[in-house]
Amino acid sequence: MAVVPQVSAIPVVGLAEFVAGDDVGSMIVERCESNGTALADGDLIVVAQKIVSKAEGAVAVIADQQPSDEALELAETLGKDARLVQIVLDQSARVVRAVPGVLIVETVHGFICANAGVDQSNIEGDGLVTTLPEDSFKSAAAIRSTIVERTGCDVGVLVSDTFNRPWREGSINVAIGVAGLDPLRDLRGTIDDFDREMTTSTVSLADEVASTAQLVMGESGRVPVAIVRGVEWERGEFPADRLLRPAERDLFR
Predict the structure, then answer these.
(1) Which of 129, 158, 189 is the C-terminal boundary of a domain?
(2) Could you tell me which residues are beta bridge partners of residue 94?
(3) In the chain, what is the straight-line distance between the N-terminal and C-terminal CA atoms, in Å?
(4) Are residues 137 and 47 part of one domain?
(5) Which of 129, 145, 177 is the last residue of a domain?
(6) N or C: the chain end with fewer CB closer than 10 Å?
(7) Strands across the sheet containing 112-114
(8) Local confidence pLDDT in tens for the 253 residues of the chain
(9) Residue 2: predicted pLDDT
(10) Which residue in 121, 143, 24, 136 sits closest to 91, CA to CA?
(11) For residues 224, 226, 232 and 238, what is the CA-based torsion angle, rounded to 10 degrees?
């Protein structure tokens, strides 16, 4: 029988509140050292988008917004603050669906999600929201570079966020930025358990890892980072659109 890998998710507890200008990679390394959780070759480090956004200053003040006509019209449909809707529109390439209480958009990054990832949760101060990092792949690469330099360990880094999915209740943690690893595992051409060749199977390894990490990160409790250990992954750098399905193959648009 084939050897089945044993995968574990280790929470990085005790991290301080992140503010603009913080070095996320250094803070992760220092906290791992303090916790006695030494990083190792092959570890995958999952970092919540929220702390990356805070460290990069991706924060907007609701009171500072001047709603456009489009924002005012959408706000009436949605039953939401037009200033908050304007922040979402500023982060969006197009509106996919707008119904009372729900605004689904395609972000400027190419993600299809609610409110363009604009979020009021887990941020200190009233009237503030975080937006997604400008380039989560670049953010992941910077965090990885710091960790590799400080520890000498060959690790991969994923920036994650929680998205809802079509036809499924509940959100799930997915990767919105990846550095050091191939986020996809292409199984086409491999043989299944009954000696048949697989012709269509491509697995989103990055999303699987992000979801595994979320089991210990949670939605609250100040655990924005986790180490996923025991996963086999392919080293390398891959383009930011690696996880995005091309429009011509997207049957749900």
Answers:
(1) 129
(2) 106
(3) 42
(4) yes
(5) 129
(6) N
(7) 92-99, 102-107, 112-114
(8) 567 779 999 999 999 999 999 999 999 999 999 999 999 999 999 999 999 999 999 999 999 999 999 999 999 999 999 999 999 999 999 999 999 999 999 999 999 999 999 988 877 777 899 999 999 999 999 999 999 999 999 999 999 999 988 888 999 999 999 999 999 987 777 777 777 877 777 889 999 999 999 999 988 778 999 999 999 999 998 888 888 888 888 776 6
(9) 62
(10) 136
(11) 30
The amino acid present at 204, given as its one-letter code, is S
Token reading at 31: 């906290």
160 domain-assigned = yes
- Cα 18 → chain centroid: 17
Q: Is residue 251 domain-resident? A: no
β-strand 202-204 against 184-186: which pairing, if any? Answer: antiparallel
Distance CA 111, CA 230 (A): 29
Q: Are 62 and 127 in contact (CB under 8 A)?
A: yes
Q: What is the 3-state secondary structure (H, E, C) of the chain?
A: CCCCCCCEEEECCCCCCCCCCCCHHHHHHHHHHHHCCCCCCCCEEEEEHHHHHHHHCCEEEHHHCCCCHHHHHHHHHHCCCHHHHHHHHHCEEEEEEEECCEEEEEECCCCEEEHHHCECCCCCCCCEEECCCCCHHHHHHHHHHHHHHHHCCCCEEEEEEEEEECCEEEEEEEEEEEECECCEEECCCCECCCCCECCCCEEEHHHHHHHHHHHHHCCCCCCCEEEEECCCCCECCCCHHHHCCCHHHCCCC
* In contact, 74 and 95? CB cutoff 8 Å: yes
